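Quick log. Single chain, no ligands specified.
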Amino acid sequence: MSSCSLVPSSSMGLPIARMRRVFDASDVERKLAQLQNNGADRDQEPLRNTWQRMLDRGPQRFAVKPSGIPDMAPLYEQLPNFTDPLDDVRRHVALSQDSHDSLQVTPMLLLGPPGVGKTHFARQIADLLGTGMSLVPMSSMTAGWLLSGSSSQWKGAKPGKVFQTLVDGEYANPVIVVDEIDKASADAQYDPLGSLYSLLEHDTAQNFVDEFAEVPIDASQVIWITTANDERAIPEPILNRMNVFEIQPPSPEAARRIAGNLYQAIRREHDWGARFEPEPRADVLDQLANLAPREMRRALMTAFGNARLDNRFALEADDLPRTPSGRSRIGFMQ
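-> predicted structure:
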């Protein structure tokens, strides 16, 4: 697929400087003409509509092209246990900043225990790049067609997530997060990870064929971020296609910083936040630091509500929800 001239910059500091063709319109026109010549019945109407939508939208999509390395210091502060994957993103941005290439990032696997912030990291990277994020929760997948589409011969068939993200979206290099890849359930007939063998390889991803649309799509620019708790459940050929980063739980001090950053973020996000103290108290941070990062926000929202019910604008440790008995808290690096 091809790319061409400059277009305006995004608001994220990473200019969208090129357009890239994600499919060949002539392929779609041939498919549509063939369907019409064959006098397709009503069962083929979804397929006809899909091809027509492709032609209506056109094949050109924005491709993020950085002109410089953005300020990532806030991300390093917010995500202190993600230094290695953040460094990897910076390296890829540096490679593309002085070239005509759009941004490409080697597929990455974030490997670590539940609750350390792996999906949050992916969202922050998508926000940084300005391309948005599509989430594919593998724990709920029972068939590979959720990624690659299902045959149009099946009742209720539709395109897969990759096709939808590229054709219905705005970008040629969106972030797609395959969450909990180790939780994918497979049976003898369908392999949920089957399509990833080609999608994670740059050369084969250039001509990825969705089983529903049956038209080659250029998925070679997709920025893949996968997450997992246990690498033993992931086939070795999939692991070999990704940079693997082991994410450790934050240290106690890092956990306090994460909690403090979340406190500040919640204050900024809500009009009522300005009425609360600018900084959380030390005992509140101490208690929050015992929680997994993804639990901190819920705990803080409960605490803000409890404080307001008590006509206070300062959080106290007792405002935080108690950890249910028997429920383990996150471990920390020493």
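Confidence is low (pLDDT under 50) at residues 2-13, 325-334.
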